[in-house]
Amino acid sequence: MSLFVIGDTHLSFGVQKPMDIFAGWENHTELLRDAWCRLIRPEDTVVLAGDISWGMNMEEALPDFQWLDALPGKEKIILKGNHDYWWVTMKKMCDFFAAHQLSTLKILHNNCYAYGEYGICGTRGWVNMEPDSAAPDDEKVSAREAQRLAVSLNAAEQQGLKPIAFLHYPPIYGCSCNYPMLEVLWQHPVTDCWYGHVHGRSQHRYAVNGERDGICYHLIAGDYVQFIPQKVL
Predict the structure, then answer these.
(1) How many domains does the chain have?
(2) Long-range CB contacts (< 8 A, 24+ apart) of 179-186?
(3) Which of 118, 134, 131 is closest to 233 using CA atoms?
(4) Distance separating alpha carbons of residues 196 and 62, to the nearest angstrom
């Protein structure tokens, strides 16, 4: 039994949104499927760190969900990305998955999932801002996302689990930081944070990979990892 993660699958089986117009995204669904089937076993868990589907609603995203559900793995745990426009309430998503017999798909939102002695925790996150230039709306969203992360991490600790953080947005990028998110991470016994969102070679070079202030950060955006799920545990 192993735990894997990958971000930014950007699937579009139900809508016209081809990704192969972007450099590095040619045949990305085939690459992802082949790597997934090579690495993931039926008993494994995979975290999908946001930007799952280009569908604008649950029905448009259904072919993407069905594609993921058919792949190997006991659980595929989904957190929200900035392009997941299909995202609705937890109850509606869970009911939709149940109605369409998508038995391996789970939602990570104000909760956590136990994986052995570890807790799978996370949320979308938000953009990084300098304190003197933050827009009021961004401050509100960032504060809300920080609270959701705290709820998730607290849920793990209440169960005696060691938390692992998964985000869509990077809490550190280049020289910019999202301090509300970082402060939550620092207040909990988090040693590893896995995130996506950052695309293209020109942007990848500013991504933080490695230890900062006691936490090891890992970029796992699909194009950065060449659409190969990365092993966490």
Answers:
(1) 1
(2) 179/131, 180/142, 180/143, 180/145, 180/146, 181/125, 181/126, 181/142, 181/145, 181/146, 181/149, 182/213, 183/146, 184/146, 184/149, 184/150, 184/153, 185/149, 185/215, 186/213, 186/214, 186/215
(3) 118
(4) 22
| pLDDT tens readout for residues 105-162 | 999 999 999 999 999 999 999 998 665 555 678 889 999 999 999 999 999 999 999 9
Smallest Cα–Cα separation from 75: which of 97, 35, 103? 103
Tokens of 19: 């990704």
Q: Which domain holds residue 66?
A: 3-231
Q: Which among 190, 191, 149, 189 has a CA at the least distance from the CA of 169?
A: 149
- Sheet of strand 210-212, all strands in order from the earlier edge strand to the far edge: 113-115, 118-123, 162-167, 192-195, 215-219, 210-212
The answer to whether 119 touches 162, Cβ cutoff 8 Å, is yes
C-alpha Rg value of the chain to the nearest Å:
17
The answer to whether the beta carbons of residues 64 and 55 sit under 8 Å apart is yes
Give residue-wise pLDDT tens across range 164-219.
Answer: 999 999 999 999 999 999 999 999 999 999 999 999 999 999 999 999 999 999 99
Helix boundaries (H) for 78-178: 90-99, 136-158
Q: Cβ distance 228 to 30 under 8 Å?
A: no
**Could you report how far apart the first and last alpha carbons of the chain are, in Å?**
9
CATH number at residue 48: 3.60.21.10
Q: Are 131 and 179 in contact (CB under 8 A)?
A: yes
- Alpha-carbon gap, residue 53 to 153, rounded angstroms: 26
